[in-house]
Every structure is written in structure tokens, then in C-alpha cells.
Description:
The complex is a heterodimer.
Chain A: H1 18-47, E1 50-56, H2 64-83, E2 91-97, H3 103-116, E3 122-124, H4 128-140, E4 145-147, E5 160-162, H5 167-182, E6 186-192, H6 195-211, E7 214-221, H7 229-237, E8 242-246, H8 251-261, E9 271-273, H9 278-284, E10 293-296, H10 305-318, H11 326-345, H12 350-357, E11 361-364, E12 367-371, E13 378-379, E14 383-387, E15 393-398, E16 420-421, E17 424-425, H13 427-436
Parallel strand pairs in A: 1-2, 1-3, 3-4, 4-5, 6-7, 6-8, 8-9, 9-10
Antiparallel strand pairs in A: 10-14, 11-12, 12-13, 14-15, 16-17
Helix pairs in contact in A: 2-11, 3-4, 5-6, 8-9, 11-12
Chain B: H1 2-29, H2 36-54, H3 58-79, H4 88-107, E1 139-141, E2 144-146, H5 148-170, H6 172-182, H7 184-189, H8 194-217, H9 230-241, H10 246-266, H11 269-286
Antiparallel strand pairs in B: 1-2
Helix pairs in contact in B: 1-5, 1-8, 1-9, 1-10, 2-3, 2-4, 2-8, 3-8, 5-6, 6-8, 9-10, 10-11
Amino acid sequence: MGTPCGTGLNLGAWGMNIERRKILKSATLGAAALTVPTILGSRAARAEGEIRVGVLYSLTGTTAIVEKSMSQVTLMAIDEINKAGGVLGKKVVPIVEDPASDPRTFNEKANKLVVGDQVPSVFGCYTSASRKAVLPVFEQFHNLLWYPTYYEGFECSKNVIYTGAVPNQQLSNFVPWIIKTLGKKKFFIIGSNYVYPREMSKVTRILLKQHGGEWVADEYLPLGDAEWAAMVAKIKNSGCDVVFSNVVGDSVVAFYREYKNQGLSMDKLPICATVTSEIEVAAMGPEFAVDSYTSFPYFETVDNPQNHRFVEKYKSFAGKDAVTYHALECSYFQVHLWAQAIEKAGKADPMAIREAALGQKYLAPEGPVKIEPQNQNTWLTPRIGQAQSDGMFKIVDAYKEPIMPLPYAAYGETPTNLFCTAHGLNIPKLRMALQKS
Amino acid sequence: MAEIIFIGLSLASILLLVALGLAITYGAMGVINMAHGELVMLGAYTAVLAIRYLDVPFVLCMPLAFLVSGTIGYATERLLVRHLYGRLIDTLLATWGLSYILIQLVRVDFGLAFLGINVPGLGPGLQNVPIPAYLTRPILIGGFHFQTYRSFIILVALLLLLLTWWLIFRTSYGMQLRAVSANRNTAACCGVNDRRVNAWTFAYGSGLAGVAGVLLSGLQTVDPDMGTHLVIDGFLVVVVGGVGSILGAIASSAVLGEINGLVALWWNDTVARAAVFALVIAIIIVRPRGLFALRGR
């Protein structure tokens, strides 16, 4: 009489071969045993002489051209701080993650850094899309993001320290200068299709109304798109006398090349950009950018001793062909501001660091900078540069000292009438301003 | 008016360059090569590296890229595609995997990045190809400004078209190719070495992709991801034109390029892309086998 499983195999209670069960059991135990040292070990490391920070810049993908160097300069700054003794007597250890230019991945990696690695601060993000994607993580878990990139404003988060330029530090000097000094009044506004260029365009149009200019077009191309034939033809036929560019990423290169190839010249029809920096000029070849203008608080050609030191140090760190640019410089000085803040706070707690960061001053490569206590943006010195044939920018206009950042300047915010204060965003005031505009 | 025609022609020529190789491999062999865009990308990188390290003049980069991409195509056929004949979905998957491998190989400097060596000209960053001055100087004919570089692309596309036509219809290899694409087994029975024909066809199609890459490198930046969307454009052209028909590829790239240019000028580029897709869907519904479908396989 045979059993239903009378095949001769020794089948145990789970229908599995007993030998297989034994192997599975020992394998699972072995694997578990292997992970224990890692768990114990990392917790031990966290307790001892090191402070971990997150570094969240894309090393691959469409914006890696810029973000990779921002990551590198952050590591360079951390290295400087460690050589000077670290912070709170401990060594600073960076945890580098690569979100691959994808906002969704930015959110995942931010989660991993804040929740998994429990870092007290994260240095990261370039595009506004990525910042918006990680904001919920920092607000939910009361952590702190140090955001070094110039952006469109219109944000008032208590969990972000913004060290890049806001529109009043990039556009409020640029638009009037184009109208008065260059004498160009008809703007063709062009940008990549996401929040930053669209908001910058809004601010530009408001400034044009205030200063007597006009806009003949407001066009957008998908981010990363490289086919510019039709758009440049449109620019030619539009009757504009200046092209105002908020184009981002590697589209910039194709744009400037197509511009020159279609026979447009920068002296008759200049491109005035808010994003084209030394790095984009190097990628496209300086001959395509010559005589175009860009507005940034920082250019590699800023002439002061701390900038010369910074450029020299960066070139020896990253290679002599490396260039410095605004977002890179902010990525650098924000690490030093963070170090000052955490020393003042006395502990590696995000909200304590935030409190201590308000009002911090530092002598950055662009000049003195200060974190504004009301809205957590940074006082910066607006400048305008003209691209030269060696790939560098000649500074043609510069303010004498840093100005206060006003993230809601486009909607009527002034230093005496703040929308974003230490108490948060004044929503009724903003709503009234939006209704008026 | 002249501008609309010129832009449409330019977009069409770029489409044709990318799609011609695809039309040949898909049409003649029934093989869907999802790595075609990456062969374009490798052609562009060939130009970057050759100009940087070997001082090869830009125009000579084209035959060089033809050889490089052609060799990689030949190797792909011998090592990968040959084992998957008749299995359409499997070739699609396998070549898709190959495309990822090629992209990442370029990203990690062909493995050198793991050793800490960064080769300038490779890696995940953007590269740019300097175009010789005689190709960027504008020509003015009758008040209309001719974009020299785009005109050059149109010229090269036409030359390659003529070369392909001559190859397929005026050489014995071409006759064998036509025989194999009509009916593989019968051709084999007649003494045609169908495996060799397939290998050389794949190599030729891939070589054309390489040349396209060199030309594209003058218009946009060269980076590892530049090829991913090109294979989609290529397939749109091939499917609309009709599988196996060179004339179809010409016609559909002309139509799609012109419509793209027209809508982009009149409205904007995003709408133009949607319009192109809408047109493709309409054509496929009305003529499922494409504009110039060949009878039978």
C-alpha cells in the first residue's frame, strides 16, 4: 500500500525535503548572523566621534552636468572642515546619494537619508522640481535641507535654508539694466517647461510692466529637448530685440548653437539668461556664447582674495579644466555656514541647527553673505556678466553690497512688508497680492 | 515659406538618417533592434574621441563612426541576434538589454571609472563636438539664409540614401539581401548564405546609425542618454513607411518631419510632437501596413 507521496522522498510536515529544510534554516540563520555586526556596528559609529550629513546631488542623468560638481565641492568643503578639526570635536562624514536627475528618486533618497541614516542635515538639490519633491520629507520629519541653487522664490519653508539667489537678487537688477543700459524693450521669454522657468517668467513680466518694457512671447520647450530649429525661427520672426532665457540643462547648449547656426548675432539680438553659467558655456563651446549676458551673484571672475583662493583650491581638487559658478559657490559656502551653525547649536539636532543658522555670516568667495533670520534665504550681491571668448564672464554690473532676499518680491514683498517671516507665510497678505496682480 | 520647407526638410533628413538603418534591419531581417539609438550614440562618441585624441577632421569622423558602429552591429548579430531568429519578442528584449549595457559602459568609461581613471570625452557628463568653421558659416542665397550645417546634413542623408539604393538594387549582395528578405528558406535553398547576408546587413544598418550620430553631435550635446528617444522616432518612421520599404522610409520621414516643423512653427514643439503621434496613429488605422507596404514575406 503506497502513501500519496510514495515517491521515496523524505517529505516532512511542510511538504519539503528534510535536507532542503535544514539547508534553508541554516542559510537564514547564517545570513541573519552576518547582518548583526553591520547593524550594531553602524549604531556604534553613530554614537562615537562622527557627525554624518547627507549629500544629495545627481551624479547621472540630464542635470548631472551641473550637480556632479556641486557634490564634489561639498565634499571638498567637508574635507576642509575636517582638516580644521571637524565640528563639536567630531569628524564630519558625508553620505553621498545619487538621485539620477529624477524627482521621484530624489524623494526616495531623501527619505533614506533622513529616516534611515538619521542625518541632522542634508545638502542637496539643484532643480526646483527636485526641491519640491523632497520638501514633504523634510517637513514631515522636522529635518533640515540646505538648498544652494538660485530658484524662483514663492516658497517659505521652515525646513529649508536657501543659500541661492531669489528672483529679486537675479531679476530685479537684470530687467531694468537690459531696458536702460542695453536699450532693449521687446522681450522674447523662453524657458524649459517646469516650475522654475514659469515662475521666473511671471516675475520678469511683472518687472517689465513696472519698467516700461513689453514681452512679445512666452514659450517653453520640454526639459532636455535638443531640437531648436522651429523655436529659433520663431524668435527670428517675432520682432523682439532681446531673448530672455530661462532654459535649463543641456537644452541650453543646443539652443545657443542653433542660435548661431541660424545666423543670429548677440550684438543685435542678445540672449540674456538666468541659468547659463560657466559650466554651460564650457559644454557648448565659448564661441557660441560670446557677448551674451547672464545675471548671477557670483562669477568665477569675481575679484577678491577669498575667491582667488577658492578657485585655486577647487581647480586643484577637480582638475584644471574645472570651472566655478554660482550654484557651486553656494554649495561651498553653505557647508561652512552649517559648520558655524552646528558649533553654535552645540548638538546635531536639525531644528537646533536651524535656530543657530539664522543670522549667520560668512565671508564667501562672492563677498560677505548672511542668512536672513525672517525667511531663511541668504543676502547676496547681484551681478551681471557678459560671456567672453575664453569661457569666462566679464562683470559689467555689480551692486556694492549684498541685498536682502525677498522670495515674494514679485507679488509686492518689500523689506518693510514681508510675506514670509519667522512666523511662517502670511497667507491672507499673499492672497490679496495675487488677486491684485 | 522657404523657412517652413527648410526646417521640415532638415527634421526629415535627421529622421531619415536614424531610420534608414532601422528600416534595413527591420525590413530585411524582421529584427527589432532596440539598441539602434545607442549605436547612434556610439557614433557620436566616436566623433568626440577621434577629434579629441586623434585630431581626425570632422568629415572623416563619419566613415570612422560607420566602421565603429558597423563592427559593433556585426558583433551584435553574430553573438546575440543570430540565436534569436523568428523570436520577435526575445530579440526586442535582448536588444533592449544591450542598449542599457551600452549606455552604462559609456557612463563608467568602459570600466575604467571603477579603477578611478576618468577619460575626458567619456563618462556621464556632456561632451561637445567642435564643428569646422566652413560648416557654420552662413550662406545667403536670394535673401534666404541657408543654415550651412543643416544643409550639410540633408546632403549627407541624400548621399547615404543613394548609396543604400545602389547597394540594394545594383549589386549582387543587394540581390541576395532582397532574396533573403522575401523568403529566407527558399533563398538558402538557392545557395544564398543567408547567415552571412544577415550579418552584413545588420552591420550596414548599424554603420548608418553611426554616421547619424556624428551628424547629430554637431546639433546637440553628446551624452550617454542621447539615443534612447531616437529609437522611438526611428520606429515611427519605419512603421508608418511600411516594413521593408526604403521608399516608405523616405516618404514617412518627409511627412513626419514636415508636419513636426510646421506645427512647431505655428504653435509650439510640444504640440508638434503630439501632432506627429496623432498623425502616425491615423495613418496606421487607415493603412495598417504603412504607406508603401511590400507584398508578402
